[in-house]
Each structure stands twice: as structure tokens, then as C-alpha cells.
Design brief:
heterotrimer; A alpha+beta; B mainly alpha; C mainly alpha; A: alpha+beta; D-Maltodextrin-Binding Protein, domain 2; 6-stranded mixed sheet; 4-stranded mixed sheet; 14 strands; 15% strand; globular; disordered N terminus; C: mainly alpha; MetI-like fold; 2 domains; 13 helices; 75% helix; cell membrane (chain C); transmembrane helix (chain C); transport (chain C); MetI-like (chain C)
Chain lengths: 425, 324, 276
């Protein structure tokens, strides 16, 4: 009697589970149903802010048009907040419930584990040829392309002209004469500070995006995360010198206090409200600058010594196909469709990001002249080591820890170097 | 007064509905199983079965998942490199950050729970008095409870912002600080604020629990004490506190567990940073999960062990297992 | 000291202190109101009051973000979890309070352990479990999960409360031919109402304010509960603190109204729970 009742309650609970399982229909990759329609599952990052311009709307548009053109394929899209997408993807992968297509985080460790299609398998050669070469190359791992760039961005030095004039720093017409070297940065920052600017130099090394901010300073001092042969070189002399220099500026009060805890979004907001003199900026700030009627100067990033060529950071977000579902042809059809110029341009202009295909670059240059300097910087831009499968791990650790290198360059960078070499094992 | 109630008269059946303070008298009176009624013959399962199913499904299953996960090497993106034995535990215990994280976790739990209990005792005493506006001022205490902890924490982070933070401005105007500070920027500045906010959000529940305990102390007890000439403090320490012991224990245990596991306060204010300088073991577990899921699970299992020790201590202290 | 013994002085001191404390507890939320009505271009100012009051932020946050949907999810989950918790906890609490059966101690220990484990500590396991069950992104998942983590407290409070109600009353009813279930529903439940109310309030507030499970078990932004929706407002490129706090204040109101209206019951329910 007891047992029967227990069984009954277990059964009831089981039935409830089964029902909801059917209801939510998320059993890993896509599937083929009886009528010959194949469903593929797309997991994409949300680029909207505060749900105001959700990427869901963008993908619904693409998919609607795609499904009309391809009645045998259905695309099931799941849009996930950028901050959470890695964790969510991690859980899916742990449960071996692979999506068919992912747009967002890095591809390297999936590729290394043999989970991904190569770009050749899921992208038409014509589309591949249309990709900007520097970006396409960053998607290579061991000679084959797995990651396909979907959207990109680059950086430039950004100056508040009004504060520049207030500090009696040189102007060239209506543009500020930007610092070319770190020595210039220092003297300009001191002038800004003397003129009462709250944050002469913005240095967002908080965990949100510290890997990019550090890299921009490191690369302009001949450093970076890896050396020429691709080996980890996080505690290279150049990087240590870089952080010594940045630390000195922090101690002299030329930056905000405790840059290791400062988010770039907060700093961008401070820039827009006229509290920051200069910083490494990016295209999404164009909107803020325009809204607050600021006069600004965009310039190449300053270098450590005179005579060095300014380097800038390129950032790519990736799209890639998982093999588990066995839907190569459907994924290919979808990606070929999504890489058409109109859809690329729509996405880039919605979010102030940069295109990855050459025809879209041409179009965006025409539509949004303000983006031209960033577009021009793209072909020569340098990337963090995205193709290294250990990068995702190293990246997470760099984000959290590298702010500490302002106080202890040698110690923190060596800890990170050790972690990076171990992550590769 | 109190003498008279100890008359030889047999205690009458407690009146209904039960009054406050009458509860101890009508303590649990479980009857033997398998009594005269028919449902009792079915045994406990129809009654407690659903609870067991829910607990197994939502609590025990994930615990098992965590233990299994902790024996695998899994990277931050979920790729499982297979069984790793105690490898993740070795890695965790070799992690140079673990020592300071555990130390801060203990300090955090002791400080937050300690302050919360002491302040709540005082608050409960205050709100137990009769004064104009008692109801309204009690409602004010509800707000931090009604607001989600994550909202309150983000609110404090906002008020402590170096540029736009109201608390910075206020302390500056009051001459308490020479210039605006980035309070959440380094561990030494951030930790006192984290403790402050955690105490702030723990006070309402604790105060209410203690207030309930205070209200269950019969007024006659105080009168007796006053007749005996005890001072206010003597009354408090000799009579009120011992009678408050049950509610105090309940509040203490719930606070210990909540504070030890606390995530939103630290996450909302510093995200455990800079570095992992303000991470407790729970936050550290979350941060580890971004790079090494197995190690993160190992951290969880270590946390479970700590929690179980806390449960056992509680059982001892409350002598819960003697009542059976 | 002697002055303090004067009732009038003592009473006014207590009153002043209580009102000061009330102000202290309200102040952070008042500042949130002030931030909520700041126009976007004044967010980085540190003036005590906004120069312009943008009351329409409260409307904009409603029309321009997903919080309307998030609010619905939160309501559904909080109400659903509360009902499920009651449904499951009440029989268990009643039985453990009334009947001494084999395994009672084990059961109570299991319940106690549940109270000790919190979703935060179990997040990886929870995510793995519900992903493998295909139950991610579902309201029902959140209802079930919230109910489970509130079960312990509910069983605890209800059991203590029912214990305090004399069993003789039910026995009398049962002698008259009423079944045990009937006696529970007709005799005990009405008397245990304050305990039930306490349990309802606690479960509702905990589920309403729950953050971690909403974050890990729900993927789609519009299906997340309000707490997660609010938090994600500052995660994006343009942190909109004013909208964030506007949404947060909206989230506080229903709980405060609910709570303030039955505060009296909560205190009496807790009394029962703390007498063990």
C-alpha cells in the first residue's frame, strides 16, 4: 500500500517533468521531423542594452526571411545575455546538448576538442572570400578555420576637446593634438590634472574588460599575451614595464582611483558627462558623445617610444557550427544567408559595431562616416590569442586579476603566466 | 501575582485559539503511529512523500551532480576531459588564493552574524516598547526585507560610486573624508562596507524573529521580576535573554547559513574583486566556474562539508536530537 | 540615569530613536527614488537632488524594457511556488507534528539539511540537472525549484504551529466520525491560519526576491524573473541606473503592501515557530 502510494507520487512528479520537457522542447541540437523539415538550433548573444534593442528582434527578422526562402529548414533561436552566455553554453556542452550554431563567445576550445565544423564545411567559398582577411585569419586554428567572424570592433584614442582647451593643451583647428607617446600622455595628463579635470586619463582595468585595456597598452610597448612564436609571454619585460608605467600614473593621481575595479561602461559614462580627459575609446561611444554634444578627437593609440607604429586592438565575435547535430548543409544554408550584406549592415548599424565582410564595410563607410577611422584600423588590428584553446581560461583569469598588476607587476603577471602555461596542459 | 498561579488546581485545557505564550504548555503531543484512524494505517508516505520527492529532485540530485562534476576535469566552456579523481581537489587546495578566501569567509560569517544578532536584539527590544508610531517605524524595517538583496547591494554600490555616489558626497560634506573615495576599489575599503550592507539586509528578518520571541514572554514574568526588585539590566540578562533562547537560536542558524552562502551582497558590490580579494568561498566558487568547472564543483563540495559541520554543531547546541 | 527613569523622557527618547532608525532604513531606498527620476545626462552628477525630475523614467522603463514581462514571470513564480510549498509542506508538517512514526527523525533531518543547502551553492548541479531534463527556460522549473528550497522553513513553521494546537480537538472530531484529513481541514487548519500566513509571506518574499536560480535556469531575457531583469540593466554597454532603480522600486511595492497588511500575523506565526 505504502509503496504503491510512493510510486504514485514519484510517477506524478515524473509525469510533470516529462510534460514540461516536451513543452520546452530543448533537447540539444535540432531535429528532423516527419515532413522533411529540419530544425536547427541557434544560440546567440544579446547585444541590446536593457532589452531596448534586443538581438532577438534582429534574429527573428533574419530567420523569418530565411525560413521563407528555405521552407525545409526551421531555425530555433535562443538569445542569451552576454554576461551569462559562456556559463549557459558551458552547461549545454557539459550535458552534451550541443546547439547547431553559436554566435558569441570564443571558438577555440570547442575547435580543439573536435566539436566544430570547419568554415569550409558551413560557409560558401564566395562568402569566405568576402571576409576581411585579418579577421578571417584570427579564426584559424592549426591551419583550418573554425571560427567565422560575425561582427567586429576596433579601438582608438579618444580625447575631450573642451577639457583639452581648458588645460591649454595644443589644438589643431577644432581637433586636439593627440599625444603620440607615453611621455606625451603623461605631460598632457598632468596639464589636465592641473586644470582640475577629475580623471585626466581613464584606465578601466576592472574585471569586465581588463584583458582588452591591458593589451592595448602592452602592444604599444612591444608586448602582448604571446610572443612571436605564439608562446605565452604575459610576464615579458615589456609587459612588466607597461604596468610599472601605468602604476606610476595611478600613484600620481593621473587616472581614476583604483583602476582595477573600474568598469569601462562607468568610465564611458563619466567621459560622456565631461569628467574624463582621454581614454582608449571604442565605436559604441559615438552615440554617447553625440547625445551629450561633446567635441572629441579620435586618434591612434599612443606608443611607448617615439617612432613606433601605433597598434590597435581588433575584437571579433564569432559564429560557428557544432558537428553533433549533423546538420552541415542546413547550417551552411543559414550562414550563407545571414552573411548577406543587408543583414550584416543592419546588425552593425544597430549596435555601432563593425562589419566583417568587405561589401558591408563599403556600405557602412557610406552610411556612418564616423565609423570610418575604426574601419580603416581594422585590417591592421591585432587580436588577443583567440585561436589558442587555453585563451578562454586565461582570459577569465586575466580579467579578474590583471588590475592587481598596477601595484605588483612582476608578481601578478608571473602568476598569470604560470596559470596560462598550466591551462594549456 | 505569579505565586497564585501555582495553585493546586488542575491546569485546565488550554483555551482556543492558542494564545501567545501558551504554546510551551501545549507542546507537541504526537500519538503513537497506527492509531485508530484509517489513514494512519497507510503510514507516513502519503503525507511526507511529496516533500521527499521535491527534496530528492531539487536538492539531492544537484548535490550528486556536484560531487560527480568535482571528479572530472571540465574547462570553463564545459568541455569534459574525463575522470580526474581528486585532481580538482588537489588543484583547489594548491590554489594560493584559497587560504585568504577561507579566512575571509570565516571572518565574514562571524562579523556579519555577530553584528546582526547583537543589533537585532537591541532593535527588537526597542520595537517591543510602546511608543507613538510603533507600527509605522516597524514598516520601515520591512523595506530592506521586501527589496531583493541584489537590489539593495547594487544600490549601495551606486551610493558609494566615486564620481556620482551620494554617500561619498555626504561624507565629504560632513568632513569625514578628505576626498571622494573609491570604496569598492580595494579590499581594505570594501570589506567594512560589505559587512555593513550584509548586516543591513539581515537585520529585518532577525529583528522580527526576536521580536516575536519577546512578545511570547508573558507579562507576568516581568512583573514578578519587578516585584523582586531586579534592575532593568538584571531582568534583561536573567529573564528576557534565557526566554529568548529559542527564537535566538532559530535566527542564529538561519543567519549563519544565509551569510555563509551569501552571494548577492558581494556579487552586487564588488563581484568578489579586485582580484579575488573580497571573495568568500561561495563567490570564489562562482569565479572558479568560469575557468574550471570541476574545481568550482570541488569548492562547492568543500562548502557542503563546512555546512554539514555547522548543522552538526547546531544539533548539539540546540539538543535537537534529544527531543525525539 | 535618573532622568532616564522618568517615563516621559524615556518614552520620547525611544520614540526619537525609533524614528531615526526608520529613516536610516529608508534612506537608501529614498536615494534610489532620487536616482530613478534623474535624467540620463545627470546620472554622473553628485548633486543631492536632480536638477530636473524625469518622472517619465517610470513609464519609459515600462515601455522600453522587458520588465513588464519579467514582472509577470516573478508574480507567476512567486504565487506558484507559494501554493506548491503549502500543498507539499502542510501534510508533512501536520503528520510530523501529530504522529511519531519510524523515520520521522530522518525525515526532519532531511528537511533541516535542505534548509542548509542553498541554490547558490548548488548552481552548477542545478543547471546540469535541469538542462539534462530539458527543463531550462521554463516557469514551472522556477516554481518547483523555489518551492523545494522554501519547503524546509515551511515545514518547520507549520509543524511547530500545529504542535501548539491541542490534538484533543481533532480526536474529538474523529470520534464523531470525521476522517483525519477532514479533521485537519476542518479543525486544525483554521486554527493554524496564522502559521499558514507566515509561511505564505516567507515563501512569497523569498521566491519574489530569488536571484541565483532565475539567473542560471532561465536563458531568454524576457522570461527571466524581475530580479535578474533588473540586474542585467547594468550589465550592458550603457548602464542605465535610473531605469534600473525605477524597476527596482516597482518590484518592492507589491511586497511592502502585502507585508504591511499582514505584519501582525507574521509576528504571531514566528512566535510559534521559534518555540521548539
Amino acid at each position: 500500500m505504502n509503496r504503491r502510494l510512493l510510486n504514485a507520487s514519484v510517477l506524478a512528479a515524473g509525469a510533470a517533468l516529462a510534460l514540461t520537457a516536451c513543452g520546452s522542447d530543448s533537447s540539444g541540437g535540432g531535429s528532423a521531423s516527419g515532413d522533411g523539415v529540419t530544425t536547427i538550433k541557434l544560440v546567440a548573444a544579446d547585444y541590446g542594452s536593457n532589452g531596448q534593442n534586443p538581438s532577438q528582434a534582429y534574429w527573428d527578422g533574419v530567420i523569418g526571411a530565411f525560413e521563407q526562402a528555405n521552407p525545409k529548414i526551421k531555425v530555433d533561436v535562443q538569445v542569451i545575455n552576454w554576461n551569462d552566455i559562456s556559463t549557459k553554453l558551458s552547461t549545454m556542452v557539459q550535458n552534451k546538448q550541443y546547439p547547431d550554431v553559436v554566435e558569441g563567445p570564443g571558438y577555440a576550445s570547442f575547435a580543439q576538442s573536435g566539436l566544430l565544423y570547419t568554415a569550409d564545411q558551413v560557409l560558401d567559398p564566395a562568402v569566405q572570400a568576402n571576409l576581411i582577411p585579418s579577421l578571417a585569419k584570427a579564426g584559424d586554428q592549426g591551419g583550418a578555420a573554425y571560427g567565422i567572424p560575425f561582427v567586429s570592433s576596433s579601438r582608438a584614442f579618444l580625447i575631450n576637446n573642451a577639457l583639452w582647451q581648458k588645460a591649454k593643451l595644443p589644438m589643431n583647428g577644432n581637433q586636439a593634438v593627440a599625444p603620440k607617446t607615453w611621455a606625451d600622455v603623461e605631460s598632457d595628463a598632468k596639464a589636465l590634472k592641473a586644470a582640475g579635470v577629475e580623471v585626466p586619463l581613464g584606465l578601466p582595468l576592472g574585471s569586465e574588460e581588463a584583458q582588452a585595456e591591458s593589451f592595448m597598452w602592452e602592444m604599444n610597448n612591444g608586448g602582448g599575451y604571446v610572443d612571436a612564436s605564439g608562446k605565452w609571454a604575459i610576464n615579458s619585460p615589456a609587459n612588466i614595464a607597461t604596468f610599472k608605467q601605468l602604476g606610476t600614473w595611478v600613484n600620481e593621481g593621473l587616472t581614476e582611483k583604483d583602476p582595477g575595479s573600474v568598469k569601462r561602461t562607468d568610465l564611458y559614462a563619466d567621459f560622456a558627462s565631461g569628467k574624463v580627459g582621454m581614454l582608449n575609446g571604442m565605436p559604441i561611444q559615438l552615440q554617447d558623445v553625440q547625445k551629450s554634444n561633446l567635441d572629441v578627437t579620435w586618434a591612434p593609440l599612443p606608443t611607448a617610444q617615439t617612432g613606433q607604429t601605433p597598434q590597435t586592438l581588433g575584437v571579433g565575435d564569432w559564429i560557428y557550427g557544432f558537428k553533433a547535430g549533423g546538420h552541415a548543409s542546413q547550417v551552411k544554408a543559414f550562414l550563407d544567408f545571414a552573411f548577406q550584406k543587408q543583414w550584416q549592415v543592419k546588425f552593425d548599424e544597430e549596435y555601432d559595431l563593425l562589419p566583417v565582410t568587405q561589401d558591408a564595410v563599403t556600405q557602412v563607410s557610406k552610411d556612418v562616416p564616423a565609423l570610418v577611422p575604426f574601419l580603416k584600423a581594422l585590417p591592421a588590428a591585432r587580436f588577443v590569442p583567440v585561436s589558442n584553446p587555453a585563451w578562454d581560461t586565461v582570459n577569465a583569469q586575466v580579467k579578474v586579476q590583471i588590475g592587481g598588476a598596477l601595484k605588483d607587476p612582476q608578481g601578478v603577471l608571473t602568476t598569470l603566466q604560470t596559470a596560462a602555461t598550466q591551462a594549456g596542459q | 501575582m505569579s505565586q497564585q498561579t501555582t495553585s493546586a488546581e488542575p491546569v485546565p485545557t488550554p483555551p482556543l485559539p492558542p494564545r501567545r505564550g501558551a504554546k510551551a504548555a501545549s507542546a507537541p503531543r504526537p500519538t503513537a503511529a497506527g492509531g485508530r484512524n484509517s489513514l494512519a494505517r497507510l503510514g507516513p508516505l502519503p503525507w511526507i512523500g511529496p516533500s521527499i520527492v521535491l527534496i530528492l529532485l531539487v536538492v539531492v540530485w544537484p548535490v550528486a551532480e556536484m560531487v560527480i562534476t568535482s571528479t572530472h576535469r571540465i574547462n570553463g566552456l564545459g568541455i569534459d576531459f574525463g575522470f580526474n579523481g581528486v585532481g580538482r581537489y588537489t588543484k583547489l587546495f594548491d590554489d594560493p588564493r584559497l587560504g585568504s578566501v577561507m579566512l575571509w569567509t570565516v571572518l565574514w560569517t562571524v562579523l556579519v552574524v555577530g553584528f546582526t544578532m547583537v543589533i537585532s536584539l537591541a532593535l527588537a527590544q526597542l520595537y517591543n516598547q510602546n511608543f507613538p508610531g510603533r507600527r509605522v517605524t516597524r514598516w520601515a524595517l520591512i523595506i530592506p526585507w521586501a527589496a531583493s538583496v541584489i537590489v539593495t547591494s547594487i544600490g549601495f554600490r551606486w551610493m558609494l560610486d566615486e564620481v556620482a555616489g551620494m554617500l561619498n558626497r555626504l561624507m565629504l560634506d560632513l568632513g569625514l573624508i578628505p576626498s571622494a573615495q573609491n570604496w569598492t576599489g580595494d579590499a581594505a575599503h570594501a570589506k567594512p562596507w560589505l559587512v555593513f550592507v550584509a548586516v543591513f539586509v539581515s537585520l529585518p528578518f532577525t529583528t522580527y524573529t526576536l521580536l516575536a520571541g519577546l512578545q511570547s514572554v508573558p507579562a507576568e514574568v516581568y512583573e514578578a521580576a519587578r516585584v523582586d526588585g531586579a534592575s532593568t539590566w538584571q531582568t534583561y540578562f536573567r529573564i528576557t535573554l534565557p526566554l529568548l533562547r529559542p527564537s535566538f537560536l532559530v535566527a542564529l542558524v538561519i543567519n549563519l547559513i544565509n551569510v555563509f552562502n551569501s552571494f548577492p551582497v558581494i556579487w552586487g558590490m564588488t563581484q568578489g574583486g579586485p582580484n579575488t580579494d573580497t571573495s568568500t568561498s561561495t563567490v570564489f566558487m562562482y569565479i572558479l566556474g568560469q575557468t574550471d568547472v570541476g574545481e568550482s564543483a570541488a569548492m562547492s563540495v568543500v562548502n557542503f562539508a563546512v555546512v554539514i559541520v555547522m548543522v552538526l554543531l547546531f544539533l548539539r547546541v540546540s539538543r535537537w536530537n534529544e527531543e525525539s | 540615569m535618573t532622568l532616564l527613569r522618568l517615563p516621559v523622557v524615556k518614552k520620547s527618547l525611544i520614540t526619537a530613536l525609533a524614528w531615526l532608525l526608520a529613516a536610516f532604513f529608508l534612506a537608501p531606498y529614498l536615494e534610489m527614488v532620487l536616482t530613478a527620476v534623474r535624467p540620463a545626462n545627470e546620472l554622473r552628477d553628485n548633486s543631492y537632488l536632480p536638477h530636473h525630475f524625469a518622472w517619465n523614467n517610470f513609464l519609459d522603463v515600462w515601455s522600453q524594457t522587458t520588465i513588464g514581462q519579467n514582472l509577470q514571470v516573478s508574480l507567476l513564480v512567486a504565487v506558484g511556488a507559494t501554493l506548491l510549498t503549502l500543498l507539499v509542506a502542510l501534510p508533512a508538517a501536520y503528520y510530523t507534528a501529530r504522529i511519531r512514526f519510524r523515520g520521522r527523525k530522518v525525515f526532519l533531518l532531511l528537511v533541516l539539511v535542505t534548509q542548509m543547502f542553498q541554490p547558490t551553492a548548488l548552481q552548477v548541479g542545478l543547471a546540469r540537472e535541469f538542462t539534462s531534463l530539458g527543463m531550462m527556460d521554463s516557469d514551472l522549473t522556477l516554481i518547483v525549484a523555489n518551492a523545494a528550497f522554501n519547503l524546509a522553513f515551511a515545514v518547520w513553521i507549520l509543524s511547530a504551529y500545529i504542535s501548539s494546537i491541542p490534538a484533543e480537538l481533532e480526536e474529538a472530531a474523529m470520534i464523531d466520525g470525521t476522517s483525519r484529513v477532514g479533521a485537519l481541514l476542518k479543525v486544525t487548519l483554521p486554527l493554524a491560519l496564522p502559521g499558514v500566513v507566515t509561511c505564505v509571506i516567507f515563501t512569497f518574499i523569498t521566491a519574489w526576491n530569488e536571484f541565483v536560480m532565475g539567473l542560471i535556469l532561465i536563458n531568454t531575457p524576457s522570461r527571466q524573473p524581475l530580479t535578474v531583469g533588473i540586474d542585467s540593466m547594468i550589465g550592458a554597454y550603457h548602464p542605465q541606473w535610473n531605469y534600473m532603480f525605477a524597476a527596482s522600486l516597482v518590484a518592492i511595492i507589491p511586497v511592502v503592501v502585502l507585508f504591511a497588511s499582514i505584519e501582525r500575523h507574521v509576528v504571531s506565526g514566528l512566535t510559534a515557530g521559534s518555540v521548539k
